[in-house]
TrEMBL record:
<keyword id="KW-0472">Membrane</keyword>
<keyword id="KW-1133">Transmembrane helix</keyword>
<keyword id="KW-0812">Transmembrane</keyword>
<feature type="domain" description="VTT">
    <location>
        <begin position="60"/>
        <end position="180"/>
    </location>
</feature>
<comment type="similarity">
    <text>Belongs to the TVP38/TMEM64 family.</text>
</comment>
<protein>
    <recommendedName>
        <fullName>TVP38/TMEM64 family membrane protein</fullName>
    </recommendedName>
</protein>
<dbReference type="InterPro" id="IPR032816">
    <property type="entry name" value="VTT_dom"/>
</dbReference>
<dbReference type="Pfam" id="PF09335">
    <property type="entry name" value="VTT_dom"/>
</dbReference>
<feature type="transmembrane region" description="Helical">
    <location>
        <begin position="188"/>
        <end position="208"/>
    </location>
</feature>
<keyword id="KW-1003">Cell membrane</keyword>
<feature type="transmembrane region" description="Helical">
    <location>
        <begin position="144"/>
        <end position="168"/>
    </location>
</feature>
<dbReference type="InterPro" id="IPR015414">
    <property type="entry name" value="TMEM64"/>
</dbReference>
<feature type="transmembrane region" description="Helical">
    <location>
        <begin position="71"/>
        <end position="97"/>
    </location>
</feature>
């Protein structure tokens, strides 16, 4: 019951935050989007995709990419472009850690997170798709750290990227709806965003608990 209560608070907070941004008439990054991205056709879409991928690869919040995608292009196209940008950024960081910057990535992860990431690395190595999916569905954690850790764990790219795409999708829809709702009079988009976020977090928590239960049974 406590977990359900937290999800309800999180959903209501998201909707309230969206309403506040809409009332203020501004949100981070929207001026840049208004000037260079919106109503620019294919050029604007390409620029958004490249900028969003670079931002995600550098470790900026992927939810922000989705928010600006919804603000610029609406819920549907914004979701698709933001998801593509997030996945491209994920692939770039994963490949960097795996092929080029292994020593640098190891220093960064060891310095900032230390032993806390060891269980995550073990889970990724044991079940790349399931562990990645569960972690992506949660609105906590560090997207860049998981990308780098996936590259360092030596897992196959396909299950990691496929699970990332699937796990990115719910929150991408949520924040694209939020961005759309901020730009127009879209109270229902904000409410739907809160509900979807609660559902995605609930699924992520269920997957994590299931994985932990499975490891406990294996060790019994």
């Amino acid at each position: 019951m406590r977990a359900i209560g937290k999800l309800v608070v999180l959903a209501l907070g998201l909707a309230a935050g969206g309403l506040l941004l809409r009332a203020l008439g501004a949100a981070p990054g929207t001026e840049w989007v208004d000037r260079y991205i919106r109503d620019q056709g294919l050029l604007g879409e390409t620029l958004f995709l490249l900028a969003g991928a670079a931002a995600a690869a550098a470790g900026l919040p992927r939810q922000g990419v989705a928010f600006l995608g919804g603000y610029a292009f609406g819920a549907v196209l914004g979701t698709l472009l933001a998801l593509a940008a997030q996945l491209l950024g994920c692939a770039l960081a994963f490949a960097w850690a795996r092929l080029v910057g292994r020593a640098w990535a190891e220093r960064v992860l060891a310095g900032r997170y230390g032993r806390r990431l060891r269980p995550v690395r073990d889970a990724l190595a044991e079940n790349p798709f399931g562990a990645t999916l569960a972690l992506r569905l949660l609105p906590v954690g560090n997207n860049l750290a998981l990308n780098l850790l996936g590259g360092l764990a030596g897992i196959a790219p396909l299950p990691f990227l496929a699970a990332s795409a699937l796990g990115y999708l719910p929150q991408t829809v949520v924040f694209a709806l939020l961005g759309k709702g901020v730009r127009v009079d879209g109270a229902w988009q904000l409410g739907l965003a809160g509900v979807l976020l609660a559902v995605s977090v609930g699924i992520g928590l269920w997957l994590l608990r299931r994985a932990r239960a499975g490891r406990a049974l294996d060790g019994a």
